[in-house]
Write a structure and sequence with these properties.
By secondary structure, the protein is mainly alpha-helical. The chain has helices at about 60-85, 95-125, 130-140, 145-170, 180-195, 200-205, 215-245, 250-260, 265-270, 270-275, 290-309. Helix 1 (about 60-85) runs antiparallel to helix 2, helix 2 crosses helix 6 (about 200-205) and helix 4 packs across helix 5.
């Protein structure tokens, strides 16, 4: 999620869809989303019998604080994603309608599990109230924005979650040494973020089907730039806020956080190519089919459950 920001578009003006002269609308059903894509509802529960410890990720306060800061945004953020997509579901093709239903169910489950995870972080001694208060302020602002702006923001943020989800599944270093059940929760979330990564994008394409390609590209690209600035700034500040609660402050701590994000394991560095791809003409999340990661992670998850049974 991102901090409150004004977007230079107003309702009933530039945002009202108009048929561009000489431009054919994009066909609703022409999409790189795989025809055989199945969005599976994995109704999993984590952390009910044993809560994660304070530094649950390899006993590393930096790694733990980064992921705790991310999780603190998810309950309110995913509620916004759901509402933004649902606001544009009328008249979508049947396949996309089914995908939206599955997307909503997955996001509801993610919200539930991150509420539990965030409560465990509070029980471990962290105060998440400042993060939540900022998000509450953002949600109040969002209600005043045109629905298409919120959908465009959702599309950009869903690309962020998909990029990070790919990294979390492709590179075991991100969760090396983490407490098994908590790591399993993050991997479960990552699987489903990859699975539904095209839903908001296809919903946007349907909602703007009468727009020119230039107009559509301009809005989504500008929004991604706004989201990127706010996402990085706010996750950075939120992480430092949580680290300060551990008594970790100063330039050395900031350098360690920067290295964690840009060096090793370097999630922000590793997603740079996928971030740039978003601005390319013809971009679609499913131009890169990474469902093999889902199959591998699902198999590993089932094996782990059998071994622990």
């Amino acid at each position: 999620m991102n901090a409150p920001t004004k977007f230079p578009l107003e309702p009933n003006s530039a945002l009202e869809p108009t048929a561009p002269s000489g431009k054919a609308p994009v066909a609703d059903l022409v999409t790189p989303t795989p025809d055989d894509l199945v969005i599976t509802i994995r109704d999993q529960r984590f952390g009910r019998t044993r809560q994660p410890s304070r530094w649950w990720l390899n006993n590393d306060p930096i790694a733990t604080a980064w992921h705790n800061a991310l999780s603190a945004t998810f309950p309110r953020g995913e509620a916004m994603f759901i509402e933004a997509v649902k606001a544009h579901r009328d008249g979508v093709p049947p396949k996309l309608e089914e995908e939206i239903r599955a997307f909503v169910k997955q996001e509801i489950n993610h919200t539930r599990e991150h509420v539990v995870f965030n409560k465990a972080a509070v029980d471990a001694g962290y105060d998440l109230s400042k993060i939540d208060a900022r998000l509450e302020e953002l949600m109040a602002m969002i209600k005043q924005r045109p629905a298409i702006v919120n959908l465009t923001a959702t599309m950009a943020l869903e690309h962020y979650t998909a990029m990070m989800a790919h990294e979390f599944l492709a590179n075991p270093q991100h969760f090396a040494g983490g407490e098994p059940e908590t790591v399993a929760m993050w991997r479960w979330h990552a699987i489903e973020e990859i699975e539904h990564k095209g839903v908001a994008f296809d919903t946007f394409r349907h909602a703007t089907r009468d727009w020119s390609r230039w107009r559509r590209w301009k809005l989504k690209s500008l929004m991604m730039l706004v989201i990127t600035v706010n996402f990085i700034r706010n996750r950075w500040n939120d992480t430092l806020e949580l680290l300060a609660q551990d008594g970790l402050t100063g330039p050395k701590v900031k350098l360690k956080l920067a290295w964690y994000l840009l060096g090793t394991p370097g999630v922000l560095r590793r997603i740079i190519p996928a971030w740039f791809a978003y601005f390319m003409p013809g971009f679609h999340p499913w131009n890169h089919d990474d469902r093999a990661l889902i199959g591998k992670a699902d198999s590993e998850f089932q094996d782990a459950r059998l071994q622990s049974a």
